[in-house]
Every structure is written in structure tokens, then in C-alpha cells.
């Protein structure tokens, strides 16, 4: 359907485009503007070249009263910080698992801000606080989106990978395997039959890595969010991480396993570091680099969601106010607000300073040694063999899915 050919409509359309420009939707297409006079008017009034809209939208907008359009323009001009800057195609994708709240949210915010050319995909079970939208409106950008992922189910991780593939996003330049949970009480199992902490914090991410690998850019940067609790020498106050065997940790005997789920958590963080090293030993760095990151203690995040209401109150409402004092008093100062650790995670994952680093364990921005156990090659290999067999069924090469 061609646009009405009149100068009056041209002026109206120019106003539409100008309003859209203010709102920064200027790369919409107007394929049917053939009329020379109309075209010139659009450029003159809107200052937008090559600008176009889907014809149905354009036709409808051309007939929108001018005062409505001026109102749109004025409103958007009053709030310049709300302007969207959708001006270019994205060059790469960055995925942040658990990017909707806590540490992952602030890492995603920092990445989206520093790299507007990258599409940042937040992936967790729900985006109940509209994190993607919140980051976009805070930054006045539109490079953050949400894609639902449930790491506690093999079928759901595969479904995520399939959906991801169908989106035709640009190559993945960084993958932040950050989502994590704690189940502080008795052992629980997922519907797949694995110990819950093991599946969410380790196995789900290993499956995700495998199924996303066809979309990796050369040299993709993988960052695993670990924790100081993986290392007994750090005396974090959590029960010591204990690596028995992958098979045992995946399906512990409920009759003999400890009731203290916090130990399963610190062990799952040890698995993150070990699996990272196992990857580094097998994958050439030109293909992929893998580092681990300890954000330090960050009271106030959702990590304590399964704790008692008293403990949750302390975690959410008392400790966050004490961070500056606690920094001076405990844990060598390794206690932070999530915003601070999120900026550190973004730095580890994508900065120029950390480019090319491989097999490094970061505590904040510092390179430090990880636990003694994490370096034991036999344990890494046991974890690797069990995981790869579980992920691939022994029928394909890990990280080269058909
Ligand atoms: N807080 C600390 O003191 C601390 C210290 C050291 C390390 N860490 C690590 O930091 C990471 C982030 O934790 P946080 O403190 O920011 O906690 P958080 O606020 O609870 O964030 C956890 C994120 O993981 C997602 N998640 C949980 N279960 C999931 C599942 N089954 N599938 C997909 N996503 C899932 C959550 O979203 P949904 O629930 O909507 O799925 C959420 O986005 C974790 O790996 C944690 O181990 C935290």
C-alpha cells in the first residue's frame, strides 16, 4: 500500500520520524516512500536519512494528529536519560546466567554499559524484576534481553539452547556461568535424579556450555563464578569443600550424606574451579579461555533464599549496612556490595586487562591461588570424565555437538 502523496502527509510523516528519532527508533524502514517530494520533506523535517517504517505503521502514523506527535516528541525530550540508542546491529552476544538479580545483574549492567555493541542475554528461570528492561531504561540503551533458562533440568537446558539457536543472535564472545543456589538443609534431588546443588551449579552449566558451543566466537571468554568457600584454607566459615567422586556427588546416598547442605554448596564451587581447569587443559586458548571468579561475600543477594526467616532477615537487612565496617574487620576485606562485585566480574569477563588470561582464579580483581584440591589432576579428570559422559552420552565429542 503506497503512502498518501501530499506535502501535508509528508510533514506529518516527518513529525512522526522526528518523534521516533527522539525516541531513537531511527532504523525502522519505510520501504514504500517512492515519492520524491515526500522523501525530501522527510529528510528535511526529520534530518533522518535512509529512515523508513513498515508501511502499515507509517500509514497509520501519518494520519496521527500532529499534536499527539508533538506530545511524544516533547515528552521524550524532557527525559533525555530515557532515550533509547538503537542505532546499530549487535556485533557479539554475551550471556550471563543468573543475570537477573544479585551479582549477575550488576555484571550485566556493567557489560551492557561498557559494550553497547554487544547483545547481553540474561538467563535464569524468571525475570520477575524485569531486569533486562530495567538495565535498558537505566542506560537509555536496548542491548539487554532475557531468555528463560532452568539449569536444574537437562531437558530445559537443551530447550534453552534450541531456542537460543533459533534467535540467530551474533556469535557469543563471553559466557558468564554465574547462576548458583544454596540448599542449606537436607539433601534434595532434581527431577533428573541428581543432587540439586550439583546439577544447578555444575552439571547444568556443563550441558549449557556444550550446547551453546556452535555459537561461540573464536577465543570465547568463559568465566565461572566460584567462591572463596571452595577453599578450606580461606576459612570462610562454611563447611569445607570435599571432593569424593563426581558419581558420588551427583547422586549421594541420602542415608549417609551430611545434613548440612552448605557443604554441598562449597563443594559445588570447588567443582566450578576444577571444571574450569579441566577445560583449560583440553581446549586451546585460541578457541576458548576459562577463568574463575570469587566475588567475596555479598550479603543481600538471593543466595540465602532457602535459609530460615531469621537468617534471611540478617542477610538481607542487617549485613548489607555493615559492609563498610565488616570490610575492615573480617575476611581480609573480601566482603562487598553486589554492585561492586558485579563490576569486578564484568572486568574479569571482558576487560582488555584480562584478555588472554586463561586458567586464572580471581578474587575480585586479584589473581590468587585456588585451593590445593582444585589443582589435583586426577580429581579434575574424574569430574571431567563423568561430566562429559553424562552430557554427551559418550557418543559425541564434548564442545563439538552435531
Ligand atoms: N552472595 C554471596 O555471598 C556469594 C559469594 C560467593 C559466590 N557467590 C556466587 O555468586 C553467584 C550469584 O549468586 P548471588 O549471590 O548473586 O545470588 P542470587 O541473587 O540468588 O542470584 C542467583 C541467580 O541464579 C539464578 N538461578 C538460580 N537457580 C537457577 C536455575 N535452576 N536455573 C537458572 N538460573 C538459576 C537466579 O534466578 P532464578 O531464581 O530466577 O532462576 C538468580 O538470577 C552464585 O554462583 C553464587 O554461588 C555468591
Automatic annotation (TrEMBL):
Per the record's keyword annotation, is Oxidoreductase included, yes or no? yes
Q: In the UniProt record, does the keyword Oxidoreductase occur?
A: yes
Range of residues in the leader sequence: none
A Pfam family annotated for this UniProt entry = adh_short
State the superkingdom. Answer: Eukaryota
InterPro entries under this entry?
NAD(P)-bd_dom_sf, SDR_fam
Give the family, as the similarity comment puts it.
Belongs to the short-chain dehydrogenases/reductases (SDR) family.
What's the protein called, per UniProt?
Answer: NAD(P)-binding Rossmann-fold containing protein
Amino acid at each position: 500500500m503506497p503512502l498518501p502523496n501530499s506535502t501535508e502527509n509528508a510533514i506529518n510523516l516527518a513529525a512522526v520520524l522526528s518523534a521516533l528519532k527522539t525516541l531513537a527508533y531511527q532504523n525502522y524502514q519505510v520501504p514504500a516512500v517512492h515519492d520524491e517530494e515526500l522523501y525530501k520533506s522527510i529528510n528535511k523535517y526529520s534530518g533522518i536519512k535512509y529512515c523508513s517504517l513498515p508501511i502499515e505503521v507509517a500509514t497509520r502514523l501519518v494520519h496521527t494528529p500532529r499534536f499527539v506527535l508533538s506530545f511524544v516528541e516533547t515528552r521524550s525530550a524532557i527525559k533525555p536519560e530515557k532515550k533509547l540508542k538503537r542505532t546499530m546491529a549487535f556485533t557479539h552476544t554475551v550471556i550471563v546466567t543468573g543475570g537477573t538479580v544479585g551479582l549477575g545483574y550488576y555484571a550485566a549492567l556493567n557489560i551492557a554499559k561498557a559494550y553497547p555493541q554487544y547483545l547481553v542475554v540474561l538467563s535464569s528461570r524468571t525475570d520477575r524484576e524485569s531486569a533486562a528492561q530495567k538495565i535498558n531504561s537505566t542506560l537509555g540503551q536496548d542491548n539487554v534481553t532475557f531468555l528463560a533458562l532452568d539449569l536444574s533440568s537437562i531437558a530445559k537446558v537443551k530447550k534453552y539452547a534450541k531456542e537460543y539457536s533459533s534467535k540467530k543472535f551474533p556469535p557469543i564472545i563471553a559466557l558468564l556461568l554465574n547462576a548458583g543456589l544454596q540448599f542449606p538443609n537436607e539433601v534434595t534431588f532434581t527431577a533428573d535424579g541428581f543432587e540439586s546443588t550439583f546439577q544447578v551449579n555444575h552439571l547444568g552449566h556443563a550441558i549449557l556450555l556444550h550446547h551453546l558451543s556452535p555459537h561461540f566466537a573464536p577465543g570465547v571468554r568463559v568465566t565461572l563464578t566460584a567462591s572463596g568457600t571452595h577453599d578450606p584454607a580461606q576459612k570462610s566459615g562454611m563447611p569445607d569443600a570435599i571432593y569424593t567422586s563426581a558419581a558420588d556427588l551427583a547422586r549421594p546416598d541420602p542415608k549417609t550424606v551430611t545434613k548440612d547442605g552448605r557443604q554441598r554448596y562449597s563443594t559445588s564451587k570447588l567443582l566450578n574451579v576444577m571444571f574450569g581447569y579441566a577445560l583449560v587443559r583440553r581446549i586451546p586458548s585460541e578457541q576458548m579461555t576459562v577463568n574463575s571468579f570469587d566475588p567475596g561475600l555479598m550479603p543481600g543477594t538471593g543466595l540465602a533464599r532457602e535459609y530460615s526467616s531469621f537468617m534471611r532477615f540478617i542477610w538481607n537487612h542487617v549485613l548489607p549496612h555493615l559492609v563498610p565496617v565488616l570490610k575492615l574487620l573480617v575476611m581480609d576485606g573480601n566482603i562487598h556490595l553486589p554492585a561492586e562485585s558485579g563490576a569486578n566480574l564484568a572486568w574479569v569477563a571482558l576487560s582488555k586487562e584480562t584478555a588472554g588470561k586463561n586458567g586464572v582464579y580471581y578474587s575480585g580483581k586479584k589473581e590468587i591461588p585456588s585451593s590445593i584440591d582444585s589443582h589435583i589432576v586426577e580429581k579434575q579428570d574424574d569430574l571431567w570424565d563423568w561430566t562429559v559422559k553424562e552430557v554427551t552420552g559418550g557418543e559425541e565429542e564434548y564442545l563439538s555437538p552435531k
